């Protein structure tokens, strides 16, 4: 145990800090870190170095080189910088490298040096140039803050949704501030800057002077400032060598330390652990590293070479040309177990397990001591927690073996925490490997989440490892393996040295019908890379036509898109393609394309019937479809033309088309309609009233209602209306007029071709029983019973039915007998029925 705590350094009486090596860096740096612009992403993220930046002592012909490494020093990308002078580098939360140029342009690169996009910080920044810049992270995303040559600040809180904000002017600021930083307070971004002995806080509306409470007197300048990882705390380094630490709101002082060094430090960062009450700041000079906090003494380390500090959630990463180290506060569980002469439950359990492996009876003594104090559950939990905070697998195993040993003597200890810790450590050990180079701590891993870690593995193109982790943790396919395979496929299509056939086959063999994978998304990526044929091959594997068609249209493969839309049977999809084709092709080619696709042609005709009638006529003309052309002109004569001459002309065109289509009936009917229109116009001119657009029947009826019986008869003869129909029309019209005298004359004019039952029915419909009885006597024998029942003469109807000896008529009359009124008639029918049965 003594050896294990050899690198523990006490800070005061309540905290220990340790610094241990994570990796031996194998990068081949040709220059010192001090000669490079450096940016390192948190959460074990990558490191970016811009070699040979623009310095006066360098020849102008030397182009700077931008290099990107993993945290372990494995090279990821290298490219010559061909753009303008760079002022600052920084990583976004999505691990995109932001390069802020002197002209205010921000260039965004991927992890592998691929250019993503660029944006500008505004015209004012362009005119005044950039003096300094900061890339910061908030709950909204990653932001950029700019100090211009005019000593004004401009910032954007989220580069993903760029909204530039010009901060208020600082009164009296004639030169660059001695130091400045960004603060996030109450969901807003502020700028804190130092000008001589004064501090100013800029928000979106005003500039206000602020004073740190309890600051030692004699300060004439602030040389450095640092905000904590969570933006809750602030540290200020003064020219008197004092380090003031307090809340970022500058309302509360935590402590102040005199380091007795007045030289400005290269870097100053916070080093604190989540849920810990201890607060410490790490200050770096050229060859010295100091850890200070609320204690009279500090921890000091000698730096053998140029180093760079990277603040983390629970510590500080320190990298140099040769090593990557991690400095942090020793977690409470580890301190309890490993500190010298510890009698904590976890320490006793660890000793008990070791003695058990030696087959020593001391194991039982230690175990009994823990059990007597009732602390066995606490001991197991301490060992599990401490295992999570250990970097080296051997120590992890030792602690987990102790926890497993202790669990055997507990009846109801839930295994979830133990199993989950084993899984988490296996994942962490895998990504901490030198070749992977993501040195996450347990606290960082929990804050980052497994989904983000998988995204970062995918970003590094470590697809096999990401898939193994998904399978090991049994993540749902859509969130795990399927998503990673889709990313792999999108990367695969970018490999232009492999043929389209081989890439498409490899992707299909690997993906198959994996749920959650969209071949259309992969095809879109292939098209974006200029591989149109590969995109088409990949779309063949896409089962959803709704995903295939839009991309085919985008690729200008409209005819193939039309085939796919027709195969899908989705009419909306077909209409989408047709409208796209119509805008893309000239009229002749468009019609020829439709001719080869009957279903598409039929749908387009339906569309044209409602939207584009002239196009519909052109379609019929091109196809020599005279039948439909005739129907089109008939509809047009009613819909478009108001003048009678125009309508007749349209109908004549329709009749000609019907003759060409050998539709004699259609042609004759159209000619009759033309004749009727001319006649109706003449009737309107001579008689007044409304005749146009009435049918032949309605025209006859209207004439009869107007008292023009002779004209009605002449019209009936001209249009060969049958006598029966004419009698019905005249009967109905005269009844509507209630001209009973004329109706009686009409009924006697000659023998009725429709009989006299209709006269009875029409009169009763007009509630005129008197007139109905006149015609009931003239009704023929076969309809006599019905006529008598209509006029209400049930008794006479019964006599006629009995006379006819017709069972159906007897039943009909019987159904009309009601109550006592027709009781005698009903009895009479029943007797007639009985006599008929006897015979």
Automatic annotation (TrEMBL):
Mode of membrane association: Peripheral membrane protein
Coiled-coil residues: 349-376
Vps16 C-terminal domain segment(s): 517-835
Keywords linked to the UniProt accession: Coiled coil, Endosome, Lysosome, Membrane, Protein transport, Transport
BP term (GO), one: endosomal transport
Organism: Orycteropus afer afer
This protein's GO CC annotations: CORVET complex; early endosome; HOPS complex; late endosome membrane; lysosomal membrane
Domain of life per record: Eukaryota
Name of the protein in its database record: Vacuolar protein sorting-associated protein 16 homolog
Pfam families referenced in this protein's UniProt entry, alphabetically: Vps16_C, Vps16_N
Main location: membrane
All copies of domain Vps16 N-terminal, residue ranges: 4-420
């Amino acid at each position: 145990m003594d050896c294990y705590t050899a690198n523990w350094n006490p800070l005061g009486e309540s905290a220990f800090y340790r610094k241990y090596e994570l990796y031996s860096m194998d990068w081949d740096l040709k220059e010192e870190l001090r000669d490079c612009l450096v940016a390192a992403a948190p959460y074990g993220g990558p490191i970016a170095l811009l070699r040979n930046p623009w310095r006066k002592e360098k020849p102008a012909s030397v182009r700077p080189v931008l290099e990107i490494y993993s945290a372990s020093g494995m090279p990821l990308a290298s490219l010559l910088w061909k753009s303008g002078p760079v002022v600052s580098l920084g990583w976004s939360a999505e691990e995109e490298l932001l390069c802020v140029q002197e002209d205010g342009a921000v260039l965004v690169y991927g992890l592998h040096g691929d250019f993503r996009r660029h944006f500008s910080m505004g015209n004012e920044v362009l005119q005044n140039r950039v003096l300094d810049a900061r890339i910061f992270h908030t709950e909204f995303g990653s932001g950029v803050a700019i100090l211009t040559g005019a000593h004004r600040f401009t910032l954007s809180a989220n580069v993903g949704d760029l909204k530039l904000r010009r901060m208020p002017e600082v009164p009296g600021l004639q030169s660059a501030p001695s130091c400045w930083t960004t603060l996030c307070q109450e969901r807003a971004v502020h700028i804190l800057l130092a000008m001589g002995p004064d501090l100013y806080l800029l928000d979106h509306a005003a500039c206000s002077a602020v004073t740190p409470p309890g600051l030692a007197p004699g300060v004439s300048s602030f040389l450095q400032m640092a905000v904590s990882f969570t933006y809750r705390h602030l540290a200020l380094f003064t020219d008197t060598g004092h380090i003031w630490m307090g809340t970022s709101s500058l309302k509360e002082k935590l402590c102040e330390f005199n380091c007795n060094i007045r030289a400005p430090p290269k870097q100053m960062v916070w080093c604190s652990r989540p849920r810990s009450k201890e607060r410490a700041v790490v200050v770096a000079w050229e060859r010295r590293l100091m850890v200070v906090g609320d204690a009279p003494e500090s921890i000091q380390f000698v730096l053998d070479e140029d180093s760079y500090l990277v603040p983390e959630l629970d510590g500080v990463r320190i990298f140099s040309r040769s090593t990557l180290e991690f400095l942090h506060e020793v977690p409470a569980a580890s301190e309890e177990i490993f500190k010298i002469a510890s009698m904590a439950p976890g320490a006793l359990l660890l000793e008990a397990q070791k003695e058990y492996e030696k087959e020593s009876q001391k194991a039982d003594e230690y175990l009994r001591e823990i059990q007597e104090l009732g602390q066995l559950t606490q001991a197991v939990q301490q060992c599990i927690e401490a295992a999570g905070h250990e970097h080296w697998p051997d120590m992890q195993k030792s602690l987990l073996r102790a926890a497993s040993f202790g669990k055997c003597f507990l009846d109801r200890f839930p295994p979830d925490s133990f199993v989950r810790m084993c899984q988490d450590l296996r994942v962490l050990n895998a990504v901490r490997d030198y070749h992977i180079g993501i040195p996450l701590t347990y606290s960082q891993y929990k804050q980052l989440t497994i989904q983000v870690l998988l995204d970062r593995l995918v970003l590094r193109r470590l697809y096999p490892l990401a898939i193994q982790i998904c399978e090991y943790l049994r993540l749902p396919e859509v969130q795990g393996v399927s998503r990673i395979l889709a990313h792999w496929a999108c990367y695969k299509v970018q490999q232009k040295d492999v043929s389209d056939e081989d890439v498409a086959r490899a992707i299909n063999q690997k993906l198959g019908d994996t749920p959650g994978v969209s071949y259309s998304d992969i095809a879109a990526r292939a098209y974006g890379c200029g591989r149109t044929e590969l995109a088409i091959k990949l779309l063949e594997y896409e089962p959803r036509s709704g995903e295939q068609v839009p991309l085919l249209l985008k690729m200008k493969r409209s005819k193939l898109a039309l085939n796919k839309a027709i195969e899908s049977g989705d009419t909306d999809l077909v209409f989408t393609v047709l409208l796209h084709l119509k805008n893309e092709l000239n009229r002749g080619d468009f019609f020829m394309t439709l001719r080869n696709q009957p279903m598409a042609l039929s749908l387009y005709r339906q569309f044209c019937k409602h939207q584009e009638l002239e196009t519909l006529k052109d379609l019929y003309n091109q196809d020599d479809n005279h039948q439909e052309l005739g129907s089109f002109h008939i509809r047009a004569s009613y819909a478009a033309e108001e003048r009678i001459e125009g309508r007749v002309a349209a109908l004549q065109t329709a009749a000609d088309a019907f003759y060409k289509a050998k539709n004699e009936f259609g042609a004759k009917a159209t000619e009759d309609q033309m004749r009727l229109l001319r006649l109706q116009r003449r009737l309107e001119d001579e008689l007044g009233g409304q005749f146009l657009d009435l049918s032949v029947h309605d025209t006859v009826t209207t004439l009869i209602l107007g008292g023009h019986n002779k004209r009605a008869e002449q019209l009936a003869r001209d249009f060969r209306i049958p006598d029966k129909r004419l009698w019905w029309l005249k009967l109905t019209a005269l009844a509507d007029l209630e001209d009973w005298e004329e109706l009686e004359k009409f009924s006697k004019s000659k023998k009725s071709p429709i009989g006299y039952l209709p006269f009875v029915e029409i009169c009763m419909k007009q509630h005129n029983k008197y007139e109905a009885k006149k015609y009931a006597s003239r009704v023929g024998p076969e309809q006599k019973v019905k006529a008598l029942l209509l006029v209400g003469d049930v008794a006479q109807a019964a006599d006629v039915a009995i006379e006819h000896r017709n069972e159906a008529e007897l039943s009909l009359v019987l159904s009309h007998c009601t109550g006592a009124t027709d009781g005698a008639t009903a009895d009479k029918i029943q007797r007639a029925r009985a006599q008929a049965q006897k015979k």
